[in-house]
Amino acid sequence: MKHFPPQAMPTVGWHYDRMALVLHWLSALLLVAMTALGWTMMAIEHTPGAPLYFIVHKSVGLMVLALVVGRLLWRRSHPVPQLPSKMPAWQLRASQLVQVGLYLCMLALPLAGVAGALHSKSGLVFFGYTLPRLVAPNHDVAESYYDIHGALVWLLVLLVCVHVAGALKHRLVDKDGVFERMVPGRR
Ligand code: HEM
Description:
By secondary structure, the protein is mainly alpha-helical. About 65% of the residues lie in helices and about 0% in strands. The chain has a single domain (about 15-180), classed as Fumarate Reductase Cytochrome B subunit. The chain is built from four helices and two strands, in the order αααββα. The structure holds protoporphyrin IX containing FE.
């Protein structure tokens, strides 16, 4: 069943391709899991089991960083479908700003984690492997990067809330098919 009125559906480039859908939902899932893991590990930071949480967090975080870079590269060669032209200009602009903010945040957040880990005593690890130490450990510098890392999580949470609110508006108010094109199997 189609979910958009004909006037909202350009003939070319309306749908996201399969890879864009996979990359979107995989990064969404991993970012939620990483946030939950980050907060959990901070709550149990001084318990004997904590180091394992840190290793998993750093390792999966590096994979998420690679995924976001891959997603940006994919996007360069596969332009995103347009939004309906009947949308008010301010909404189109707001949607672009939130998307740019999300990508910047998805890059800066893991990069701040990497910078913190590089300056920490335990270093940057990827599952069993300790990656080459590029800088001398410095507790204060590591903590500053972790402060930025923790603050960016809140910025990401805020941007995701605005992003989800926008998506729900398309689904419930505008009913223009924009929501459905990011839902697998709803073409
Ligand atoms: C990819 C997305 C990531 C998300 C969503 C994320 C999320 C979080 C969260 C929610 C916290 C707890 C912050 C707090 O409450 O203060 C945290 C802490 C931490 N993250 Fe990440 N993280 C990510 C990537 C990374 C990466 C790539 C690394 C390093 C390779 C990393 C290393 C750390 C470390 C070491 C801490 C503990 C900081 C401290 O001791 O204050 N994170 N992260």
